[in-house]
Structure formats: C-alpha cells, structure tokens
Design goal:
heterodimer; A: globular; B: mainly alpha; disordered N terminus
Chain lengths: 232, 156
C-alpha cells in the first residue's frame, strides 16, 4: 500500500476517475450548475487526501501532469473565440462597448466589495479575475500575486451564481432580449453561465459564448494595468 | 468540427462533453490520419504558448504567456480568415474536458481552510454582490446601446 502512495499513477487515476464520476452525476442532474463536475470532484478528492494524510504538495507531484495541460488549453480558447467573432461582426461595436463597461464593472466591483468585507489583499487579487473563464483567471491570478486555487474556487462560485440567478435578475430589470441576457450572463459568469444560456435559447448561448471569450481577452489585457493604478 | 477546419457555433464555449465530442472520437477510429492531426495540432498550440511566453518576456508585460499565445493564435487566424484544421482538432480535444484540467488547482482549496474559516462569509458576499453588479451593468449597457441603434434600421 505504501508503495502505491508514492506512485504518481494513484492520484492521477483518482483525479480523472473523480472527474468522470462527477461528469456522470452532472449529466444525471440535467447539467445543473449546482452539480458542476469540478465542484463534485474536489468534494470527492479532498476527503480522500485528508483521510490518507496526503499533503497538497504531495498530491500536486502527480496531479501537475494534468495541471500542465492548462497552458495549451488556454491557447486553444482562440479557436471558439475566432468562430464567435466571425458570427457577430455586424453588431460588434455595441458589444465591445458593453464589454468595456461590464468587464471593468466585474473587476472593480470585486475589489470594492472585497475591501468592504475586509478581505486580505491577496484574496482581492485572487478574486479580481473571477468573471473570466478559469484557465485565464488562474494564469492572471498567479502572474499578479494571487492564489490560483482561491481563484479557481471564486470563478466556479461566480459561474454558478450567474447560471442559477442571472436570468431572473435580468428579467426583473426588464431585460427580455435573449441576446442581451446571453451576453450579460457570459460576461459575468463565463462557461458555466454559457451552459445555462444555451438552455434559454441557441441565440442566448451564442452571445454568452462570445461575451465569455471577449471578456477573457479584455480582462487579461486590462487587469494588470488596473491593479497597477488601484489606490487601495 | 467541419472538414474545412472551421468550428461550429456549438463550440462557442468551454462546456465539456457536448454530444458531438463522442462523434469526433468515432471519426478518429474511422480515419487513422487524424491521429497525427491531433499531435500536429497539439504541437501547434504548444508553439503558440512558447511564442506567447517569449513575447511577454521581451515586452516585460504582466500578461500570462498562455494568454499571449491565445491572442497570437487569434490574430493569425483573423489574418488568414481560418483556423488550421489540426489546430482546430486539437483545440476541440483539449476543450471538451476542460473542467478536468482545473481539478488539481481546485483541490488546492484544502490548504486554505484557515482563510475560509475566517473570511468565508465575506468571500461569498463579495462574489454574490459583484456577480449581480456585473450582470446588471452589462445587461443595462447593452440594452441601452441596442435600443439606440434600432431606429436607424440596423440589424439587432
């Protein structure tokens, strides 16, 4: 048993196994955001690690092989973004203005509310890219002095919030245009929100995917500059 | 994915395991040539990542290397007006189970127990309010801009 504990195959297998099981459960519950496979697999793996007395560093020695693939996957995001941009060219201008306003609102509101609730500085940095798709958010957080794990958690929670409550909140404000609903949900809560937007309609899903990709680019360009001049 | 290397609208987001991801797996069994395609595309993505890292260190900017690589790939694709088929193929393969790649980092939350105990409520409150504000501001801005455009007869 001890020999197994030191073998990278153990935690690699358990990580992929937990993910696949989470994905099954997620599908069983009609892909509800509350059963996101990341949430479920973390909830399965953490008790296993604690029970076996395995530290996170030790776990990461084998799991880093999966973690490393995040970089080429981030590059790969250019492919759906390219497809989305080609489809929306006719109304790109109002979308880009909404992106500018919404993207900044996403960062600044996280910094301001975080400050209001007395969160430590590195938590604020980790939370500032929370509206952006996870690989970009984690890369930004690491680069800017945040904690990638905290960022991953904040991004997932943000995604679930937007997916579960976004449509109702926008309807409450009289926003019924599916394109606008989709764009707002995708910008605020990335891929998890986009899954939900696809349930509203195909149109909402397409605008959500576009907003998600655009905000990933916008936030990665604007966040380093914004944090450099941020007064608090 | 279509044969010409362009991607369909359904691929517009990083949702893992959509129905057609299984179909593309079958494609690979039918056509052995796509095995090398995947590797070619994967190496292409790695090359953009490297180029991104190089660019970032040369310019000395705070942008993460992989994100710079994504921007480079986007720029090249827009200039050529298409994505090379192997790159598109490999991208789809990587993105179809994107959530798996976050699991190792996600597990890292276990070493933040003290922080969560102390600031957990504040963190949740921050995320709830910030997400709501982002949704509302984005939605209202776009609604306003589109309403101003409509009288001019432009496509909604």
């Amino acid at each position: 048993m001890n020999a197994l504990m030191d073998n990278p195959a153990l935690w690699l297998t358990l990580t992929i196994g937990a993910y696949l099981l989470g994905e099954r459960i997620h599908q069983h519950y009609e892909r509800s955001a509350l059963t996101h496979p990341l949430l479920l697999s973390v909830a399965m793996l953490v008790p296993l690690l604690l029970a076996s007395g395995t530290s996170y560093d030790k776990y990461m020695q084998s799991a880093r092989f999966i973690h490393l693939l995040l970089a080429p996957a981030t590059v790969a995001l250019a492919v759906p973004l390219f497809a989305n941009i080609s489809h929306m060219r006719s109304m790109l201008r109002p979308l880009l203005i909404a992106l500018l306003v919404g993207g900044i609102a996403g960062i600044v509101s996280a910094l301001l509310f975080g400050r209001l609730f007395g969160l430590p500085h590195d938590v604020l940095i980790s939370f500032s890219p929370k509206s952006v798709t996870t690989p970009i958010a984690m890369a930004l957080s690491e680069k800017l002095g945040g904690n990638a794990s905290l960022t991953a958690a904040a991004v997932i929670v943000t995604g679930i919030l937007g997916a579960v409550g976004g449509e109702q909140l926008l309807r409450l404000l009289g926003i019924r245009d599916e394109a606008v609903q989709g764009f707002a949900i995708g910008l605020a809560s990335h891929g998890i929100g986009t899954t939900r937007a696809l349930h509203i309609s195909h149109k909402a899903g397409a605008f959500s995917g576009l907003a998600m990709s655009l905000n990933g680019v916008f936030t990665s360009l604007c966040l380093p500059a914004l944090l450099a001049i941020w007064p608090f | 994915m279509r044969r010409d290397g362009r991607v369909s609208l359904r691929q517009c987001c990083d949702i893992p395991d959509r129905p057609h991801s299984r179909a593309s797996l079958c494609d690979r069994h039918v056509n052995p040539g796509t095995h090398t395609d995947f590797l070619t595309g994967f190496v292409g993505l790695m090359a953009y990542w490297l180029a991104g890292e190089l660019l970032v260190s040369m310019l000395g900017i705070g942008l993460p290397g992989p994100v710079a690589g994504m921007l480079l790939l986007l720029g090249v694709s827009m200039l050529r007006k298409r994505v090379a088929a192997p790159v598109s193929h490999a991208s789809h393969g990587l993105l179809s189970h994107l959530s798996l790649l976050f699991v190792p980092a996600g597990v890292g939350i276990m070493s933040q127990a003290t922080l969560l105990a102390e600031h957990g409520l504040g963190m949740i409150a921050t995320l709830v309010l910030s997400t709501a504000v982002t949704l509302v501001i984005t939605g209202l801005t776009l609604k306003l801009l589109l309403a101003r455009r409509k009288p001019h007869g432009t496509q909604p």
